[in-house]
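Troubleshooting: if your tokenizer reports a length mismatch, compare your output against this known-good record of 247 residues.
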Amino acid sequence: MKIFPKIRQELMEKNKTGEYLKYAIGEIVLVVIGILIALSINNWNENRKENIVEFKILQTLNNDLQTDILNIKGMIKSDSLVIESNKQLIIVLKDNQSNYNSSMDTMFGRINRYDVFFPQKDGYKFLNSKGLEILRNDNLKSEIVNLYDFQYALIAEIMDLKKQLYLNTNSIFNEYLETISSDSKVKFSDSQLKKPNDFNALKKNTRFMNHITHIYAEQIIFLNYAKAILVKMESTSSKIEQEIAKG
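Known-good structure output:
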């Protein structure tokens, strides 16, 4: 019976084909696993690099904010001093019994003085250069964008308004006041001492009083804006520090 050797040969060939298929499938599986491992390692490396960049950005942002917070607090303190001085000066000028004395020279010198604030933006520029998507925390991302694109734009407008207020009123005040001292070593808001040309006449000068009461009201508005923005700066800084602490 020659049929049996033929069947045996066919079975052997089928077994070989099956072995080859198993071997080929095994090779494919190994290649796929290798590719997946390589992709996983590559993704891990990319994520690690992005995390390092994100950490540096957050650190730079927070360093900038800490500087900004100190600077705006300084501005608030200085402007508050000017506001309080103008408040007292208005009271003095409205008092029919008041008389001039040299201690008023500081108040007259402060009338339209103002301090300035220019934010640090290195961290935000760094963030924009890498793309906002580098920040994983979407809520924090929104808060940072709001602070820099809206709040800081608002305070830039305030700085411009303060400057314009100074320029528009300086010539008016100088018409009635004599500058008697300027000391570069003294804080900006106290750098000039001025005295009225005629104190008693000044008390009756409606134009002068209108301008000082106007600038006093505007200074309070500017101060309140600065205080509100300070709260947002401190809140953003705190959230950035929390994100940094997460690693």
